[in-house]
Amino acid sequence: xxxxxxxxxxxxxxxTLLTGCANTEAKATEAPVAEVSSDxxxxxxxxxxxxxxxxxxxxxxxxxxxxxxxxxxxxxxxDENDKLTGFDIEVATAVADKLGLEAKFTETQWDGIIAGLDxxxxxxxxxxxxxxxxxxxKYLFSDPYTYVYGVVIVNEKNTDIxxxxxxxxxxxxxxxxxxxxxxxxxxxxxxxxxxxxxESIQLVIQERADATVNDNVTFxxxxxxxxxxxAKVVATSDEATESAIxxxxxxxxxxxxxxxxxxxxxxxxxxxxxxxxxxxEDITVAH
Length: 287
Prior knowledge:
This protein is an alpha/beta fold. It is 34% helix and 23% strand. It contains 12 helices and 11 strands.
């Protein structure tokens, strides 16, 4: 079902869609892209200066601190008992457990989350931070643990649309300013303006629009909450955005430790189990 045309990649549109944590169409799966701060001077590593590393301090303290939003369901949110939970929370907790540490979380808004890492307010960020070349210039990433793809969603009764190309001339329900609208229009889709994914998917279910476009995790979350809704995915992009834990540039030992822990929870099935709990399938591996 991975049918995104090569023309999309040539135009660079899909790459634009998948450079941040999220898209403008659905907060449930995306957050605005934070600005990467820029320090002008060359950085001296903790090892070079003789100072203890973040990981050494974490081991001495017995805990590691992660930043997260706490308002970003299903990744990081408060349940009915006001307990912080979510996919990223459970992944970070499992990582810390493999390191023999307790996971502690600092909740903060997305637009300041990376600046807080720069300021040393926490050790790492677990909040669906997308891996980009720009961020890699200043920060370290763990190995990716989520892979998100663009999808075309139609009513279950629809048999006319089976690919991105089939959007040509069709009514596609989307927020007009979203990147997904730009994508749909690149295939000739006619945008039916909405205020977000919830409204878009309802227009598709009610057959007042032919299709909508979003990421597969948004749709998985929707179906997990409304399994009987008359909607299905008919096309999935070839390219994915990868998300990982964000770490300061001079914390390579922490990066290595987190990667080791991620490998362990991947190999023992924990990562897959957490994903299936929240999404009904494994989004922790590339298609």
